[in-house]
Design a protein that fits this description.
The chain has one domain: Rossmann fold. Helix content is 27%, strand content 20%. The chain has six helices and nine strands. It has helices spanning 11-19, 48-53, 89-99, 110-113, 159-165, 201-224; strands at residues 27-30, 42-45, 57-59, 76-80, 102-108, 134-139, 142-147, 173-179, 183-186. The strands form two sheets. It has a six-stranded mixed sheet.
């Protein structure tokens, strides 16, 4: 069982992001949820509840709709814990590239999505968050995205070791900053594609993702000066 669960934004990281945004910048948040980004001037999402309490809010299905904004309209786009939920994340990423000059994307880390007891509740038996469709990590300037198939519940990991890594809140997240364009790699299943399910190649990619999650979390901590 995890000692602590870090579902909220990490304050040191949030403070660092806000410092990167100039005063007076036009800032879009995609998927604000219950904790909107303080520096956002505009919001985009898909719920009437959000639109009832947030100003400059546009409704769009970010998996399929063209966002109702001009090319490079925003100085900065902030998108936290959205991409992993979408049925078509690459459409959203392409639209972010179109409307943003710069931005920040955050998702749960690959390590987080493959560890038990991460979701809300106590001693949760499944891996990661039960409603997420994708596992996401970054490697340098590229986001890596792979489907989260049910087989992850049957893979044997060193559970205590994984949970031990999550004592550090920075290991819960994938941190991705971009300028001009979001670079991404979507993994496809198939005999002539990135992996198949019967030869261990899917597990190998997941293991690479977890290792990169740890590497990039340490880089992030160094970047914002917490180590």
């Amino acid at each position: 069982m995890l000692k602590n669960k870090f579902h909220s934004p990490i304050q040191q990281n949030l403070d660092y992001i806000k410092k990167q945004i100039k005063d007076g910048a036009k800032v879009l948040e995609i998927g604000p949820g219950f904790d909107p980004f303080e520096k956002a001037t505009h919001f985009c999402g898909w719920t009437q509840e959000e639109s009832s309490r947030l100003k400059n809010y546009s409704v769009a299905d970010v998996s399929s709709d063209r966002l109702p904004y001009a090319d490079k309209e925003f100085d900065f786009v902030y998108c936290r814990h959205v991409i992993e939920d979408l049925w078509n994340p690459t459409h959203c990423l392409n639209e972010i590239s179109r409307v943003a000059k710069e931005g920040y994307i955050e998702t749960p880390s690959a390590l987080c999505e493959l560890t038990k007891d991460v979701d809300g509740g106590k001693d949760v038996p499944w891996r990661g968050y039960n409603h997420h469709r994708y596992i996401v990590w970054n490697d340098g300037d590229t986001l890596h995205i792979i489907p989260k198939f049910p087989i992850v519940e049957h893979i044997k990991f060193e559970e205590k070791k994984l949970q031990g890594f999550l004592d550090n809140p920075f290991n819960w997240c994938t941190f991705y900053h971009f300028k001009d364009q979001v670079n991404y790699k979507l993994y496809h299943m198939g005999r002539d594609a990135d992996f198949v399910m019967f030869d261990g190649s899917y597990l190998k990619i997941l293991q690479q993702g977890m290792n990169k999650s740890l590497d990039e979390s340490m880089k992030r901590m160094r970047t914002i000066g917490v180590v």
